[in-house]
Design a protein that fits this description.
Length: 279
């Protein structure tokens, strides 16, 4: 049995689908009730309470660990989850980290994630670490304004990074959970090309078949929206990257293709699959 945390999110859903399609028994985890995967079960648990995860980890062979929201805040203790997983006999851990760990190791949230990577490496379990850059699904932040006013409001409109489709992250994670060739690897995951927010607005217009405008937000306006769903320090770290990405942050990584044997999906492909959210 494989435990998938973050199971109802952008990565967790396609990851669970890929594992079930491969014939694996999956236990999905999130704080809210959800439909169980075929042949498996859904466990309601909060990762902020690692002890409460123990019944879910019992008997699992592998764990996909994805932290959300306040678990990134200073003072959270997600390392305890790794310790309890190893003590429960979990033999393989795939950790969802972030590219910023490599490109900007000094932000508060990235120092914490780097430390968690080290805990995973030293846990005694087999491991793979995934370091994705920005997600295509961040465009869902714009869904309401596109629906109601046909406009994307975002900061740094002409500064881009090679954002990745979270479905590709899910498929890479499934491969890492199932295939020994990925043990001990650290994969940097990006999309196929740099794309700016203004170009994303144009791609959304393309899939909608109607015009979508662009309004540039100030950094402060953008942060005010982001802190509704993430700690302020993570919002600051993210805005630092979006405002002035380094060379390493605009580089297109070969790792999705190395793992999946195909190129990563484009933002337009993500937008086409998710067009209903913007109508
Ligand atoms: N967005 C980016 O550009 C970017 C870039 C690099 C890395 N990342 C990382 O990617 C991750 C987000 O992935 P995603 O987009 O797939 O997530 P998502 O769509 O926001 O979904 C989050 C999932 O985690 C569950 N969850 C949230 N808090 C939980 C808790 N305390 N205990 C148990 N389950 C919890 C949610 O379900 P419930 O609400 O029911 O609990 C949901 O299933 C974060 O770790 C983020 O740092 C993001």
């Amino acid at each position: 049995m494989i435990v998938v945390t973050g199971a109802t999110g952008n990565i967790g859903r396609p990851l669970t689908e890929a594992l079930v399609a491969a014939g694996e028994q999956v236990t999905t985890v999130s704080r809210h009730a959800a439909v169980a995967p075929e042949g498996g079960r859904h466990a309601v648990a909060d990762l902020a309470d690692p002890a409460g995860l123990e019944p879910t980890l019992a008997g699992a062979k592998a764990l996909f660990l994805l932290l959300s929201g306040e678990l990134h805040a200073t003072g959270a203790d997600p390392a305890d989850i790794i310790g309890r997983a190893a003590a429960s006999g979990v033999r393989r851990v795939v950790l969802l980290s972030t590219l910023g760990v490599a490109t900007r190791p000094f932000g508060a949230t990235r120092i914490a994630m780097r430390a968690l990577e080290d805990v995973v490496r030293e846990s005694g379990s087999d491991w793979t670490i995934l370091r994705p850059g920005g997600f295509a699904s961040n465009a869902l932040w714009w869904a309401e304004s596109v629906r109601s006013r046909q406009v994307v409001a975002a900061p740094f409109g002409d500064t881009g990074v090679p954002i990745i489709d979270p479905a590709d992250i899910g498929e890479v994670a499934a491969a890492c959970l199932l295939d020994d060739r990925h043990l001990g690897e650290v994969y940097e995951l990006t999309g196929p090309a740099v794309i700016t927010p203004r170009e994303q607005a144009a791609a959304l217009a393309g899939v909608l078949g109607s015009p979508v405008g662009f309004r540039e937000l100030t950094r402060a306006e953008a942060k005010a929206g982001m802190v509704r769903s993430m700690p302020a320090e993570l919002a600051d770290d993210t805005l630092d990257i979006l405002s002035s990405p380094t060379l390493a942050e605009v580089r297109v990584s070969p790792d999705v293709e190395r793992v999946l044997g195909r190129a990563p999906r484009s933002f337009a492909e993500w937008a086409a699959r998710n067009v209903a959210a913007f109508r």
